[in-house]
């Protein structure tokens, strides 16, 4: 009876559902004892950023995790191939860059199936699937956890420890010099974060809807400062490592604390 009732509830009402057999883990940082910083790039691939980003990561001997948008995967398959050939991890970031909480569970499931259908042509579907939807939608919603559990039996939401807010960095910037100064300051702030080692860091490639004409240039200007900050703290950049104990815990509640914005 409860299941029937749940099915009749709209997505908007389902925020009140606390119990579900399908809560998936929500990762906020690397497992205890892992000091590698997990750089994560949303919204790519992009002809403006991806090649430069890959070159900088290679020079720093860094591995990163890319959450790719379906329409851009379709448009730039050679960039997807380049990311994978460099040993980075790729997952879907929806099909179009839209709010899937508003679209509902069927649309969210379809968006992820569609993007992964393309990505699976480049590499085998991972046995554990990191989920990050556009605008980080859905990880507090039981119905989205259920939809993602249907998408992949080992789905796991990848939130983050630190948001660089890089999508705001070019707002009001008139020149590349101004933007460069902001990127440098961000790197300095990042270097001061006590829990930087072992963190998951949110970055973007050519972010959708970012204000400022120079927004697509942020990745290439900011990444050197991010890599320097991590190196200065004696840490390396590695892939997101889901914790085995978290994956066994099906009754998982999304953490209530927010992320750190820098
Ligand atoms: Zn995004």
UniProtKB/TrEMBL annotation:
Belongs to the polysaccharide deacetylase family. GO terms for biological process: carbohydrate metabolic process. One of its GO terms (molecular function) is hydrolase activity, acting on carbon-nitrogen (but not peptide) bonds. It holds the Pfam family Polysacc_deac_1. It comes from the Bacteria. Is involved in generating a small heat-stable compound (Nod), an acylated oligomer of N-acetylglucosamine, that stimulates mitosis in various plant protoplasts. InterPro entries: Glyco_hydro/deAcase_b/a-brl (IPR011330), NODB_dom (IPR002509), Polysacc_deacetylase_ArnD (IPR050248). Transmembrane segments: none annotated. This is Chitooligosaccharide deacetylase. Residues 35-238 form the NodB homology domain.
């Amino acid at each position: 009876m409860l299941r029937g009732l749940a099915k009749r509830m709209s997505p908007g009402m389902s925020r009140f559902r606390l119990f579900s057999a399908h809560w998936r883990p929500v990762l906020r940082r690397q497992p205890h004892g892992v000091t590698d910083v997990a750089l994560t790039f949303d919204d790519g691939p992009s002809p403006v950023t991806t090649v430069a980003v890959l070159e900088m990561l290679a020079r720093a001997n860094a591995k990163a995790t890319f959450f790719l948008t379906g329409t851009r995967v379709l448009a730039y398959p050679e960039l997807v191939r380049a990311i994978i050939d460099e040993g980075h991890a790729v997952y879907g970031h929806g099909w179009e860059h839209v709010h899937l909480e508003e679209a509902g569970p069927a649309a969210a499931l379809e968006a992820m199936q569609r993007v992964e259908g393309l990505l699976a042509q480049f590499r085998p579907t991972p046995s554990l699937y990191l989920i990050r939807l556009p605008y980080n939608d859905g990880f507090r919603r039981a119905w989205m956890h259920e939809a993602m559990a249907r998408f992949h039996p080992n789905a796991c939401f990848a939130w983050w420890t630190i948001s660089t807010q890089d999508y705001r960095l070019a707002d009001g910037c008139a020149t590349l010099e101004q933007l460069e100064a902001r990127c440098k300051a961000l790197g300095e702030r990042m270097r001061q974060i006590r829990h930087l080692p072992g963190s998951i860091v949110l970055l973007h490639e050519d972010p959708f809807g970012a204000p400022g004409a120079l927004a697509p240039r942020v990745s290439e200007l900011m990444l050197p400062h991010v890599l320097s900050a991590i190196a200065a703290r004696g840490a390396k950049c590695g892939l997101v490592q889901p914790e085995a104990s978290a994956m066994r815990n099906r009754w998982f509640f999304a953490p209530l604390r927010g992320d750190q914005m820098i």
